[in-house]
Amino acid sequence: MDNSELIHLKNTLRQKPTEELISIWTENKKDEWPEEAFKIIEKIFTEQGVKIPKQKSIEDSMVNAKSCKDVGAPFFSASTKKLAIMSLCTFGIYEIFWFYKNWKFLKEKHNFKIRPFWRALFSIFFCYSFFKIVKGYCGQHQVKADYKPWQITVAYIVLTMFNTAPDPIWLLSSLTFIPLLYVQKVINNLRNQLSPDFAINDKFSGWNIVGIIFGLICWALVILGMIFPE
Fold first, then answer.
1. Residue 85: what pLDDT?
2. Burial of residue 47, with CB atoms counted within 10 A of its CB: 0-12 exposed, 13-18 middle, 19 or more buried
3. Helix 177-194 vs helix 149-161: angle between axes, to the nearest 10 degrees?
C-alpha cells in the first residue's frame, strides 16, 4: 500500500463512527479490510480513550466471512482410504500436505494473511482451529459433523507425541491419520452437497505410487530392524 492509499484509508476510517470501527475490529473483518486498517483503528481507539475490545479469532472470522472468493469445491478432496494409505506409507508426511492444502484453500477463499505451509508443518498448534472451522462450515450448510474438535485434537496430539517413545510404542505415532479420517469424511460430505460435480480424489497418481513403494520398503526395514536388532 503506497502513501496516498494509506492516507485515504486513514481519512476513511476517521470519518466512521466509533460503533462501526468497533464492529470492524471485533468481527476481525480481514476479508474486507487490509491489515493496515486495524493498526489505524487501534490508534484511533487509543486517541479517543476507547478500551480496545476483544477480537474474534481469524478462524471464527473465516467461518462467518461475507466476502469470499469462488475457488472451487471446499477443502482438500481425498477419500478416507487414500488418506489412510498415503499417511501410513509416508510416515505422516502426507498429513502435512493434507493440512497445507486445506489451509491454502481457506487462505485463497477468504484472502486471510495466514501461512499455510507453517500451519501445516506445526499442525499440532493449529489443528484445533482447522477442525473447528470445518465443523463451522458444516453448521452453516446443514451438513452433519458428528465430531467434537477438541476430542479430535487431543487424539491427534497424543498419537503424535508417541513418536519419541521407545520401541515398539513409537509405532502408535504412525496412526495419527485416524482422527483425520473423521474430519475427511465430513469434508467429503460437505463437498458432495456443495459441489456434487467435483469427484472425490480417490485415485493414486504416479508420485503417490512412488511414495507408497518407498514407504513400504522403509516399513520393511523398520520391522526387520525391530525383529533382528544388532
1. 97
2. exposed
3. 140
